[in-house]
Amino acid sequence: MQEVENFIKRHQLLSAAQTVVIGVSGGPDSLALLHFLWRRSSYYKIKIVAASFDHRLRGDESASEVAFVKSFCDERDIIFESDSADVARFQKEHSLSLQTAARICRYNFFEKVMTEHHAEALALAHHGDDQVETMLMRMTRGSEGFSAAGIPVKRPFATGKIIRPFLGITKDQIEHYCKVENLFPVYDSSNESDKYVRNRFRKKILPFLKQENPNVHERFQYLSETISEDEAYILKLAEIELEKVLIRQTEGKIELSVSAFNKMPIPLQKRGITLILNYLYKINPSSLSSVHKENFLSLLGSEHPSGMLHFPSGLVVSRTYDRCLLSFEHIVVKNEEESYDFSLELPGYVELPNGRITAEITDCEPALQRGKDVFVFSMKEVDLPLRVRTRKPGDRMAIAGVGSRKLKDIFIDAKVPQEERNVWPVVVDANGKIIWLPELKHITRHQINPSELWVILRFHKKSP
After folding, report:
1. CA distance 101 to 79
2. What is the mean pLDDT of residues 134-140?
3. How far are the Cα atoms of 5, 137, 201, 217, 288 from residue 142, in angstroms, in the given order?
4. CA proximity to 217, closest of 178, 171, 154
5. Residue 451 has pLDDT above 70, yes or no
6. Pairing of strands 434-437, 341-344
7. Strand order, beta sheet including 154-157
8. What's the pLDDT at 336?
9. 447 pLDDT tier (thresholds 50, 70, 90)
10. If 0-12 CB within 10 Å is exposed, 13-18 middle and 19+ buried, where does residue 67 land?
């Protein structure tokens, strides 16, 4: 077992551990791990706790395995913890696959034991053959990123981390250890059934690979660690670049610049999508796949200026010109509740869904009042009172040198997102004539005359 000790040392699996919980089913892998760490507990200066969980899926067989592990621990004065759960019932209540339901129940138990014993590590007996099978299965399904790396050597969990000291050795080596140490593990009959995908990979694919290279598990483990290291580095780069792309980021909503995103290298774009989805979903739904990410890239790379995608769990991806919004909120194209029509007193102000318009009167020289958010005009050239409203079907505006134009066309030319057009302020005079579209267009102003009274309108737009 020198290989295991070297693996533990190289990955510093026990350097910070004082108490280690060991997941034990009674099979050869977990029994060998329990025995190995028990024999080496004084060397590693650790206290060990055996934890055994009954999924109640195989009746008396699984219950007897827990009893076997307890007896094994009692003989060696090892602390033993056990529990059980009706996994089949849990599966139906939460509409999960049987394997997912079993995993959730089992890991909930492990977390409880770690917390009770203030453990720094949970040791699990996944080995090199498991790694090969897992990576092949995930590649076949089209996994990418960290998922393609297979089983991690260690990862954060509960009060510490999960560690896997056996990833550097094979199933045959573990079986040999059990014989040499006179261990008599129990065997799970379900491991022989071809109805499970993993068993088919184990029985049909793995033997062929080992024929080609008996140490294939070492190559897969090296590949796994390389993928994990590369992925961590690329994700860090993507995180830095993504900061330059985001327009706003709130709970359940992200908006980004399409042009800035498309300037990122493709590998960073793909990781950027991963980071965005991880942030929005917290826990990605099982129905989310690489196809969704490919569709996202296609939407942002399309020459068409607008489009919409529907992702699992109600996530809507909406592109309008240079902006892309990902949100769980339903996007309403037109809603009467969004419309408004306010009187604008002089002087005075009106509060709007997307900001505020203020009005003041001055007899001072207003020529320096410039900007898209400011409109200055003489009181003689506009019929008062003024009103501020939302757009209406057929709205047109007179523009100097151009003639009359539809508001719809003005919005399109200015690339105003569809959802913003519905609340965009339209300032009209007493006759309903449109005199100003803040930040976009205004009617032609007369020559400045210092002897006249002037109106200064300002639009204070809300930050996104």
Report:
1. 27
2. 93
3. 34, 9, 16, 21, 12
4. 171
5. no
6. unpaired
7. 79-84, 47-54, 19-23, 121-123, 160-163, 154-157
8. 45
9. low
10. middle
Q: What is the pLDDT of residue 56?
A: 93
Burial, 369: exposed, middle or buried (Cβ in 10 Å; 0-12, 13-18, 19+)?
middle
Task: Return the exposure string of 311-336: e unless at least 16 CB atoms fall within 10 Å of the residue's CB, then b.
Answer: beeebebbbbebbbbbbeeeeeeeee
How is residue 25 written in tokens? 């089913």
CA distances, 401 to each of 6, 398, 407, 424, 444 (Å): 81, 9, 16, 24, 9
- Spatial distance between the Cα atoms of 191 and 207, rounded to a whole number of angstroms: 16
d(CA 96, CA 286): 10
Domains, the chain: 2-214 (3.40.50.620), 237-327 (3.30.465.60), 336-461 (no CATH)
DSSP string, 107-162: HHHHHHHHHHHT-SEEE----HHHHHHHHHHHHHHT--GGGGG-S-SEEEETTEEE
Residues in the chain: 464
Burial 404-432 (b: 16+ CB within 10 A, else e): eeebeebbeeeebbbbebbbbbbbbbeee
Query: Rounded to an integer, what distance in angstroms lies between the CA atom of residue 105 and that of residue 445?
Result: 73
pTM recorded for the entire structure? 0.70
At residue 367 the predicted structure's pLDDT band, cuts being 50, 70 and 90, is low
Roughly what angle, to the nearest 10 degrees, separates helices 60-76 and 28-39? Answer: 10
End-to-end CA distance of the chain, in Å? 60
What's the pLDDT tens digit per position in 4-21?
999 999 999 999 889 999
SS3 276: helix
Q: What is the DSSP letter of 463?
A: P
DSSP 393: T
Find the mean pLDDT for residues 426-452. 84
The first and second tokens of residue 79, run together, are 């602390």
pLDDT surpassing 60 at residue 332: no
